[in-house]
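Final paragraph of the annual report: two paired records, presented back to back.
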Amino acid sequence: MTKKPAFWVILAVLSAVSAALSWQYFTRAFPLLSIDIGMDRQAALASARMLASDRQIGPADFRDAASFSIDETVQTFVELEGGGKPAFATLVSDRVFAPYKWRVRHFKELEKHEATFTLRARWNTKRIRRETSRRRGWRGADGRSGARHR
């Protein structure tokens, strides 16, 4: 079967059509979102260190870890129920919502006491989560407590 020229002609035509369709519809299938991230990993770590020392949060001799993430739940909801990918892009570009965030964790090995800082990548708003053996709570950047007990 693979020695017949008709097979190779059909395969070449299908490949060319597939390549042309991929070229035309790639951005629709995989939209690229250009975001302006105003904070890199080093800035997120430095900001969390500054907050920890200013507010005396977390362990004294800590190690830190940082991760960058997106709020996929909101993105999925807006894309499926709120107007599609253009609506999500408008939501982000209009600065109504900041789905991109840095999460910095200060911890000490084998200790329960730790602190997790959530830093919004665009507007420099901060949310701080303290964890101890007795209590877990959230504090806003202004220091007001919204503590939840679990």
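The closing record of the year follows.
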Amino acid sequence: MAADKEKKENPVLADYLGQLRRKLFWMSGKKKRMLIEETKAHLEDLASDIAGKDKDKAYEKAIKRFGTPREIARNYKYLYGYGKKFIIVMLAITILFSALTVPFFSNFPPVGEDEEAKDTIQNISICCGVTSVIFTILTFAVIIFTGIKGGRWHGLAAGLAAFFTRTVIILGFLAFYAWISSFISEKISEGADTTIEIDFNFNAAQVCGMFFISILMVVAGVVAGRGIKKLKKDKLFDEEDDEDLETF
């Protein structure tokens, strides 16, 4: 309804506001509506200050003076941040990807006489190792993207989500495999006929390495957010200084 009303009033203004609305997709609905209304009022004031009978030309000049939808959306996102929708989606993706970064079976080579079973477990081990590397890279990419787009607090939230997800899974699997190892040992001691054993060769260095990667994910989110915020701030003030010089 609002878009139809804008279209009836002026097509140039309606098209501009429509583009701006799409650029502000990740913002909350209430904040987005407020910014659209403020932008509309500002453009109407600028257009009214420009003399001339051609309203379209007046709005085109006002828009040129005000800035493109991309520039204005960028400044709005810098000043007001992103909405809950953005961080919820990014956290969900981070949790999903980070859950697949733990190398479940890659450090558990099979021991026993059954060659077919040994080959199967070895293939699973290799696949899990490759999957872990791929999703570790993807998780870092998502965390850094979240920090760049949402700022250091969003980057921190994504990093912590990855850290706690990995921690829970690592501890859970270590406990599970310890239980399996104990169970197999108990069955063997009871004289059970077992042809496959699993050699649990996780050591302290490997576990510490996995936790170190988890900590790096948190650091990556914070650093990306802080760094990009400084760049955006410097760029924003540089543009404002340029406009002041042009006006002067």
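The chain has two domains: 2-81, 84-234. This concludes the annual technical report; the extension proposal builds directly on these records.
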